[in-house]
Amino acid sequence: MFTAPFSVPAAAAATSALALGPPHLPTGIAWTVLIVSGAFETMWAYALAADGMRMPRRIALFLVGTVLSMGGLALALDSIPVGTGYAVWVGIGAVTTLAFSVLRREESLNWLRAGFAALLICGVIGMKVAS
Asked: Which family does it belong to (predicted)?
């Protein structure tokens, strides 16, 4: 049996193959990516409810928003714990979608709803501070 002079043991080869996965983002960048991808939830959520838009455009908007939102979430979760990251992502998406709907005058905002949205934002900030 022929053995190459510079062969790598099988265990070392398997370990180095695992190291070839996606790079870990620095924590600050991961949080930025997470927040931006949470905001892109608004894009796909709007596409689901956009009655005045033709279906091909709605589908394209939905797909782009989903890829950006989920892709950013996946990148960020490589550096942020999944429970914390997902909670922040959902909170950011909920608040930005509400803000977008209010700006488009599709929903109204009273003091109670604004207070609960502020509570969501406080929760997002709390998750960041506590992690």
From this structure: Belongs to the drug/metabolite transporter (DMT) superfamily. Small multidrug resistance (SMR) (TC 2.A.7.1) family.
Separation between Cα atoms, residue 96 and residue 84, nearest integer Å: 18
Q: Contact at 8 Å (CB) between 78 and 25?
A: yes
- How many Å apart are CA 117 and CA 52, to the nearest integer? 27
Q: What is the pLDDT of residues 26-41, one digit of tens each?
A: 888 999 999 999 999 9
The rounded Cα 122 to chain-centroid distance in angstroms is 18
List, in order, residues 6 or more apart from 34 with CB less than 8 Å away. 72, 73, 76, 80, 85, 88, 89, 92
For residues 74 and 37, give the distance between their C-alpha atoms in angstroms, rounded to a whole number: 10
What Rg, from alpha-carbon coordinates, does the chain have?
21
Domain ranges within the chain, ordered by starting residue: 25-130
The number of residues making up the chain comes to 131
Residues 70-85: pLDDT tens digits?
A: 999 999 999 999 999 9
